[in-house]
Amino acid sequence: MRKHRSWLMGFGIGLIVGAIMLQMILFAEKQDAPLAKEPLKAEELADEAKKAGLLLLTPEQLDARVNEARAEANGSGAEGQEGASGQPDDASEKQPAAEEPEASESNAPASETPSAGQNEANPASETEPQQVSLYVSYGMSLTEVGEELQKLGAIDDVKEFIEETRPVAAKMRVGTIVLKGRPTYQEIMDELVRKK
What we know:
The chain contains 8 helices and 2 strands. By secondary structure, the chain is mostly helical. The chain has a domain at 139-193. A two-stranded antiparallel ribbon has the order 1-2. Helix 6 crosses helix 7 (158-165).
């Protein structure tokens, strides 16, 4: 009996641990059973939607909003045009608000974004040096920076920009770069590596 004492102890402990684990598994399965829950009422659902910051719409309201959006998208090109309901089109009022997020995405000040009423041949705007800004995010490549600068009108050729600024590709810092007028490649490189 003394020879097999450690074997018997291990066997007994194994049985006890196995039985405990089996009981835990059975207990956990009972806990996972779905609880019978009554569905939410319309008022409760609306309250929960408000708490989450959502808007609860009936199918009719949803269809009306979709039709409004379609009409706005179709009529947004013509200002002062009357919609199908005979009322003035709201697209001209909502259009300036839609332009503001675009300006913030390109990080250009709103004064730089030409409006529909301005003429590009205006000599006063050509004599003033335009200031453009661009947010350089982490992991942005020279190609992406060059494309954004080309969209903003700071450079003409992306390939030439990449060739000229390749030495600072690994040294670019995250942050907003501000360029005035038509900067040289050296000015752009200095701005890309400047501590922001």
